[in-house]
Amino acid sequence: MDIRRRNNVNVTGRDDAPVLLLAHGFGCDQNMWRLVVPALAERYRVVLFDYVGSGGSDLSAWSEERYASLHGYAADVVDVCEELDVRQAVFVGHSVSAMVGVLAAQAAPERIGALVMVTPSPCYIDDEGYRGGFSTADIDELLDSLEANYLGWSSAMAPVIMGNPERPELGRELTNSFCATDPDMARVFARTTFLTDSREDLKSVSVPTLVLDCEQDAIAPREVGAYVHAAIPSSHLVTLAATGHCPQLSAPEATAEAILDFLESRQ
Amino acid sequence: MKPLTIDHRSTATGPVLRVAGDLDFDQAPELRRRIGLLPLAPGQCLVLDLSGLEFCDSSGITALLAARQHALAAEADAVLAAVPANLLRVLTLVGLDQVFTLRPYSDPAS
Amino acid sequence: MCRAGGVPDPAGNGAGMDAAFTALLEDSAEDLYESAPCGYLSTMMDGTIAKINATLLDWLGLEREAVVGHRRFADLLTVGGRLYHETHFAPLLRMQGELRGVALEMRRQGGGRLPVLVSAVVKHGTGGEPLLIRTTVFDASDRRSYEEELLRRRKEAERVRAEAEQARVEAEQARVEAERARAEAERARAEAERAHAEADEARRQAEADRTRLAAALAVLQQSLVPDSLPAVPGLETAVHYHTAAPDQLGGDFYDLFPVAGGRWAFFLGDVCGKGPEAASLTSLTRYTLRAAAHHDPEPASALATLNAVLHDRYTAGGDPRYCTCVIGVVEPGGEHGSVTVRIASGGHPPALVLRSDGSAEYLPTPGGLLVGILPGAPIGTAETVLAPGDTLVLYTDGLTEARTGPGRDDLYGEDALRAFGAGHAPAGPREVITALTGLLESFGEGLDDDTALLALGVPAAPSPTRPTTSPTS
């Protein structure tokens, strides 16, 4: 099987440098990293990919059985590492992907040497003594809206193409990425993302880890970042002066700088 | 058709075969086979006790003749004992009463 | 900003139109903002709401004081809307400075969702730095309903199409199944026809085999008994042959033939066993007797020759085979046409003589033994004269051994036969044979053996030679 084609693998940056593996979260694809890639590529070899079922991946390789669990997405990460023969890579995962990185490091410890968790959440639903940011009812509503209003979601992006005179290629790619996603696959990813409780898996992390959260994040509140940091003894927490759940888009310079600082400090 | 039964008994003077049932075209070969396997010493007497014989046709008579011949070949004698009246009539008719030694009883002592 | 000039009078005259136009001109900018048919809100760059119009507050059921300075735009959205806002809307707006017509969902106070289309623009300061975000919100309920209806109809259409496809597939499967079953049935039918044809062929073959075998048996049977008796001057003859099993060769035999010196020889007998082995024995017996009778017309001599031949051929080798037989020679030339008959018998039932005076008597041949079991076996002989009206009857034991009585456990016997003969005497050979044939028929199932009958006699009154009869069987 051609893993590069299956996961739409793109490699950039310095050939001789350590590898940064950038993994997108739910509802997006590798374009989410577009604004931070130039700064990271100056010093590192940057590997970008799409999970099967997202972006430019080979949708024919998708199976509900495999991708109804975060382990299926972690298997994609391991496949990409083996295909490129990557060792001791720095895995940079956004949102739910941060937890995928934890599972990949469990499955193939020789492949993952460090973790950067960008606005991670091991569990989106509030629990006793834990604030994930959403009630069970919220998640049900979210899944319902995905279920019932997919037309609205996809059509919501259509105007972006026309309203993007300055950087049309960005809008088009984002739109294409979103629109290309098969509704059934997106629903499975959403269920997997929002219904999985991976808090126990945090205990397994022993590699150096950077936890990045934002001052204002409507998806993963700061309590979650603190929780992740507390659960991983080898972690370092940086709170970006940024709003939103996607600092790599809303504050790309600060995000890249935090990642680079973390990497430099390891050397 | 009554099944043919052949009981073998050894006595001081020789073997006694009690032949009962129907001695016909289908069953007579069995008597010939049994007699052919019978060891006979010179001077012995083979007794065929026919008291239980229900029917005997020409194939049966052939078997009796074969028994006689087998005995003679071994320098022994053959005796028909307790021959039923019907068979005796037929034997007489065809002259075999002169050929076979006939006895009223199978006991060699009598 | 009131009365911002330059608005032309669309009609130019008419008091009613003037009043409306006046009201329009007097509409304040503040009122235009607050009561616009769309929602307006302005936020700080972090989303905190700084200004919101009454229309939007009204749609969402919110109080201005609870919102301004306290809530961010994302807080007004449903969870799905918020997720989309965080992952797409806000980053894109920040990058592009403008977004138009994005579909989101807002949360109404007290439950319920408001589908909206949102446009936003970032207002920049004089130095180009982003200052705040201006957002317009259009009620997209109707559009959403329309979309939902479209979606519903599309799903319905897809469902119907899927059902139709499913029905088509099922129909196709049923058709294939039916075709398969039809082919199966056709195959089974062809198979059955083939088997039927094979069975027919086998039956035809078996029939042909049986016919051929019957023909062969008939030919063979004729070699064992003559198909007709020769005419004998001064004698009348008759014969009957009853075969117990039509498909099996008979074990009885007879013959009548001329020998040297104007004499005639005849014989009749019964070989042991049945089937092909009996037939071969019969054949040997018949031709031995014919040859021996030619060589030496004395009946006892011919029988002795037969005895020696059978004994050498079979019994001496440990395979006893034998026959009963009566053979005779007719010496013509007696007074008034009478003939002298000399007979020899080996183990055969005695001949019966029906006299012209109405009596019947046996012609005993005592001492005769089965032919072929002992070398030099004793042979019984007898002699008699047949005067005109006398008839000599030879028979095999099928006649006297026939089972009679209610239980079929009595034998017909020699006494009954003699009485039967006496009852018919005097009688010529054909008359006797006819009577005896009737007797055999009367035995029915009781007659289970082959039976041969041969009668010869001197006609009661001198007469020309009569033709002989053929076997009646």
Automatic annotation (TrEMBL), chain B:
**Xref: InterPro entries:** Anti-sigma_ant, MlaB-like_STAS, STAS_dom, STAS_dom_sf
Where are the membrane-spanning stretches? none
Listed Pfam families? STAS_2
Q: Which CDD domains match?
A: STAS_anti-anti-sigma_factors (cd07043)
Domain STAS stretches? 16-110
Q: Which NCBIfam families match?
A: ant_ant_sig (TIGR00377)
Q: Which family does it belong to?
A: Belongs to the anti-sigma-factor antagonist family.
Q: What is this protein called?
A: Anti-sigma factor antagonist
Species: Streptomyces olindensis
